[in-house]
Amino acid sequence: MAVLDENISVFHYFEQLTQIPHGSYNEKELANYLEAFAKAHHLDFKRDDMDNVVIYQKASVGYEEKEPIMLQAHMDMVCVKAPSSHHNFATDPLELHIENGWLYANHTTLGADDGMGVALMLALMDDENVKHPDLVCVFTVQEEAGLYGAAGIDPQWLKAHRMISLDGETFGETTISSCGGRDVIFTRTLKRIINHHDVYKITVKGLKGGHSGDAINQERANANVLIGRILQDLMAKGIKYHLVDIKGGEKPNAIPVYASCLIATDTDITDEVINFFTSIKEEYQFSDDAIVVEVEDTISDYAYSREDTWNIVNAIFLAPRSVQAYSPKIDHLPEYSLNLGVVYIENDEITLFWSLRGTLKSERDYMSNQLASLSALLEFEMTSGGEHEGWSYDPDSPLRDAFEKTFREMFDVDMREIATHGGLETGIFKGYDPTMDIVTFGATALDIHTENEHMNLSTLKDAYRFLAYFLGTL
What's the distance, CA 270 to chain centroid? Predict the structure, then answer.
């Protein structure tokens, strides 16, 4: 039984999306759905080997001579769940419920980022009453993994010089610039030894988390960083131990809400860990006040060498973290930052995965070079990728001017222009066509990239109503 009102087209399509697993690199079934939609509606489409899909809808009668417009959203969602959840993002549909006009999933991300945009496009193409010029509807993959779909799509498919990006997350806001980004990964092969010591599991949980572009300036704790601080404090107190395992975070661009590690030692560390955490908890009393640290006994017949342990702990502890500088022009907007989003050991190899963001390439280079120096000192292999440029503010945008004017007329309020520290595919599309006139838009979703992600249903309806009207004014 549907949770949302199926008589409202944009709700119908959003709920359909939630029933199709579509995390990054797992978009094939959703691409199949989009292809089937295009065929059922007799629309031309293109699909590449990455599963990017572009659907073309011809202009309404009387709009044939109007300039085409491109609508764009990404298919993939960030897959984060509560530690207690047994949800399988590769196979399971999301479980939905509504609270006070907000749509939630059951202890998992909702995929409002960017299922809202995908649903809006499908509903617009499905509505014969919407008047519009030629539509170029672009559905990209792997945005959350590094904007790879947009970077890999054939620019010749983008047959428009005007674009509405539907990756906005606050109704009534339009983004006017975005940040560039890069991924940096440390790896190191570890040496196992036989363990004869007691083993303790340290867990950090209860953090708020959030998107590493949107929430990193809110001084929220990073579970991986906290684990590193705890482990370094034990070292500083002369407690000898061997690392057995460490795991934290699920996506490089999400601030980790949970991390744990296992260490082997002859010292009962319980009081030391709890007392240290109590001493630093005050740092987060206003930004992340529900953090919990637990210590429990466990067992393991192996551990990793002291050298491996030393290097891993110091890599986490010494790496720069969070916001490195703020914009001199825009209040509280990060200029460049980095987020240690994922840490794990698999097959006796440690992986540390950072998401770097910087308005300028020189800023991203600076952070990469800091990490490169650290990797050399601590004998890690370092690789980087996922490079994308930012999107600079365009003071002369006829599309944005018309968009804001129409919004004011419909809702009797001015749109708010914002700059974001997050990365947007707009920078890539602008790179393909420097003449591209771009505006961004979306409904309201909160706590994206967390298990508490939720979407405001009334703003999704209003977003559809506005777009349906605005396309007819072009």
Answer: 35
